[in-house]
Amino acid sequence: DRWHVERWMPPESYGSPEMWRAQTTETDGGISIPALGPYPARGDYEHCFTLAGPRGEFIPLSPAACDWIVRAVEWARRQPRSALRAAVLARESRRAADFDRGAEVILDDAAPAFHAQPFVPAANAQGSPIRKDNTQMQAPSSATATSAAHGFGARRDVVFDTAAKQDAAATVSIASISDQDWYVSRTHGVYHIPACTKGEAYALLMITARGDALDLGDNRRLPFVISAREIAEDLLQDLHDHGVFVCAGARPTAEELAAATVRRDAYYHRLIAEGDTLWARGHSFREISDMHRRAAIALGVEREWAYVPTRTSECPVCGEKIKHGVAVCKHCHAILDADKAAKHGLHNPAAASQSRAQQGKQNAD
Predict the structure, then answer these.
(1) What's the angle, vertex CA 39, arms to CA 285 and CA 13, rounded to 5?
(2) What is the pLDDT of residues 278-335, one digit of tens each?
(3) 153: left (phi over 0), alpha (psi -120 to 50) or beta
(4) What does each C-alpha distance from 72 to 5, 48, 50, 76 come to in angstroms?
(5) Distances (CA, A) of 215 to 104, 107, 209, 224
(6) Which pLDDT tens digit goes with each residue over 15-70?
(7) Could you tell me which residues come within 8 angstroms of residue 213 by beta carbon, excluding any fewer than 6 positions away?
(8) What secondary structure, in 3-state letters, does the chain show?
(9) Residue 287 to residues 45, 51, 69, 250, 272: CA-CA distances in angstroms?
(10) Which residues contact 182 (CB under 8 A, 6 or more apart)?
(11) Is the pTM of this model over 0.70?
């Protein structure tokens, strides 16, 4: 749900077809695969940037935003290619540094014993370790990633909590009223949410608790448990609008199914309205995504842009393209299915001639 700015690139910017094949062809098992598809002989659109706020929030495409976009594009055109390349490298370096800092913060919170406070491996009468400032340190009773800090010189409890959070139920059910299969990959497994078959009210997937481990470095791993409900909620981050939800019980209730249907239909109506807007701009099928077409087909809404390819075959007599399973070829009028033709009275030449005459009259009209 964001505005994306693209620019058209001429075919010359991609080099020659030979250079394109040499740079984009990959070999897997002795088979050459065009990783980026065929050479864009007619040019192609490439993504420039996404219109969003500092925290990724939605920004409407207002006149002020359009003016800012035009100014940014014109400014970028005046910059030398070396400066643009350096800016991209600097941006990626910042992203990598931000990721490394975030990972270090997580590891620093979990890995150091007693929050890196100095201590000696001596023990008092109760057998508890003593720090250099003679402050008693309580030995961790379990492994937790939380700590209670009460100021310098105060006692600190450092424990790593590996118990599952939220609902401790052994299994949780995910219900889907979508006609599409969904595959979600996580470090603890790949999950297949099946499509709801025609005639069924919903499809169901059972989720169980899983174990995983946090790599602390130096061949140290911190195991922990992820509850079934945590896994289910994580899998459905972007699927709620498609009619996929976590059941409160083992099976979805009628109220849950009705709420999921209302939410899915509202989302599909928004997609259809968006598809109408994109189509009105230039009647380009490239602007229409599969989600727009799926929404229109699911709700039974007829749109010019929501076409469904029809399966065709060649007539064995004239070789023209015809619909699959027809009884008579509309081009040469050859009878292709005698049983079906006889059922509709086209088994004799007179009836066939009459049918051709009627077809010709309809075409003339």
Answers:
(1) 95
(2) 888 888 888 888 888 889 988 888 888 887 666 778 888 888 888 878 888 888 888 8
(3) left
(4) 11, 11, 13, 6
(5) 12, 9, 20, 11
(6) 888 888 888 888 877 777 887 888 888 888 888 778 887 777 888 878 877 888 77
(7) 221, 222, 223, 224
(8) CCEEEEEEECHHHHCCHHHHHHHHEEEECCEEEECCCCCCCCCEEEEEEEEECCCCCECCCCHHHHHHHHHHHHHHHCCCHHHHHHHHHHHHHHHHHHHHHHHHHHHHHHCCHHHHCCEEEEECCCCCEEECCCCECCCCCCECCEEECCCCCCCCEEEECCCCCCCCCCEEEEEECCCCCEEEEECCEEEEECCCCCCCCCEEEEEECEEEEEEEECCEEEEEEECHHHHHHHHCCCCHHHCEEECCCCCCCHHHHHHHHHHHHHHHHHHHHHHHHHHHHHCCHHHCCHHHHHHHHHHCCCCCCCCCCCCEEECCCCCCEEECCCCECCCCCCECCHHHHHHCCCCCHHHHHHHHHHHHHHHHC
(9) 11, 17, 20, 41, 13
(10) 176, 192, 193, 239, 242, 244
(11) no
Give me the mean pLDDT over the 237-247 stretch.
90
Residue type, 223: P
